[in-house]
Amino acid sequence: MKGSVAYRSIQKRGLHIGLLPEMAAAVNPTTPITLDHDLGVLPEAGRRLTVAQYADHVDDLAARLWAAGVRTDEHVVIYKTANADHWMLAAAVSRIGAVVVNLSPALDAKTVGVLLERVGRPTLLSDGAKLDVLADVPLADLTRRVITSAGEREGAVALTDLAGAPRVKPVVRPIDEAAVITHTSGTTGIPKLVVHTPRTQGIRLLPQWRLLSLMRKKETVAINVPFVHSRMVAAMSLALLKEYPVLLMRETAPAEVAEQFVKHRPAFIEALPNSLMEWEELAEDPRAPFGSVKVFSSTFDAIHPGTMSRLLNASDRRGALFFQIYGQSEVGPAVGRAYFRHSAHKANGRCVGWAMPGGAAKVRVVSRDGNPPSETNPGSIEVAWDGIAKTYYGEQDRYDTNRDGQWWRTGDVGYRTRFGCLHMLDREVDMIPGVKSSLEIEDVLLSRLPELTELVVVQGPKSEPVPVICTVDDKPLDLNRWRASAAVFPQLADPVQIPQAELPRTATLKVQRLALARRFEEQLQAQA
Q1: For residue 133, which of 37, 308, 338, 465 sits 20 to 30 Å off, Cα-Cα?
Q2: Could you tell me the CATH superfamily of domain 438-527?
Q3: Looking at domain 47-195, which CATH architecture does it have?
Q4: 206-240 residue pLDDT tens
């Protein structure tokens, strides 16, 4: 089977992650998958697998889950320590026709309890470390059974005890029924459970299949995104079907990332914007860990032009580019834009791109007040295509409030330029009176002050825009440098510096802006 044949099959029948490793092995059984850590569920497997071995492990784990009592149409919540085995276990759950519910290991016990209740007594697949986190959650009442992927726990079924279970025939879920459930970032409260079907997952591969076609050789793709995220489904599917060697990473510390990049020399890097910001310092590493990179890609959030420029200038590849995709869990990739070495530093960070060719998503900006959307009067950004998620599990009414026929309201505000570029200015819930775009302020000041590692503008107790800043090694901010750089934004309040470690973040490292704003409100009340 060729990759293009497998891809056409997915477009016709949908993407079933339980079948994907087997399909990829049929394309090329020797495609290597390298890990930067040991698998929790199969530590003896080592850190270097072929896709054929990977597919066999998924089939083995599917058999063990069946032996543990999991059946077709059940919901299986996976909440475990961050590890590449999460995606392997998700594929195994899918392979027996059960519905995967991926929960981030960053979620706290209270949130997990709420989501378990929302799903309705699912099977919980976890490990010892995370079961300790859930010690005060009434799992006996909230789950049908508990299965451990590593270690043993009283009252739970251990997958290690089921090694050698008879293999079972794979089950293909209906193309428009729930197959994988992920969750939103939770920046505004309890995350929403986003339902993906085989059809919506398959359609989302379309624009990205063409992006990977830019790589003519079978060079290494480094993937460093949360294993629980819907983006992991697309990233793994595309790389394996294209027969690209995969470096599947968990570690994000710059020193460890540099070691991996120097050793494996990836040509394509997929990572979170905040991870890429953290890795900027590697641009100065004499070993040139980014020297081999042809394409940098990020999809989770807009990224600052200064970061893109620094990374691109650290590549030795001719024509190196940074491809940014704007989207969200509910809609997948909506628009995209390529940035190049000679111009990235001059880019407008609010310009997130144009609709991608070949049957990809349609985007429009709708007025919020009856007047035409513009730079000074941003409208609501909406997306339409068949890749939109089917629903929010257990919250259909909440889903319906964002849906207008074929159009999905993203919750972001922006405008289109006369050339058709979509400019995303802010999340609607994060808008601050008198501020055109908090994100634009952050772009500008981060580019002017390299000592900053993070800058987030949030609404203060009196509706004033408060810049919250973090610095390299948490060193004190030079207020004179700040005032000189921030003079173009006179509406800003004085900056508030906090240690980087105190920034509240989501599972995809987005800063929880509302949580920061609440902190200021609580401090004001405490002083009253």
Answers
A1: 37
A2: ANL, C-terminal domain (3.30.300.30)
A3: 3-Layer(aba) Sandwich (3.40)
A4: 877 876 776 778 999 999 999 998 888 888 999 99
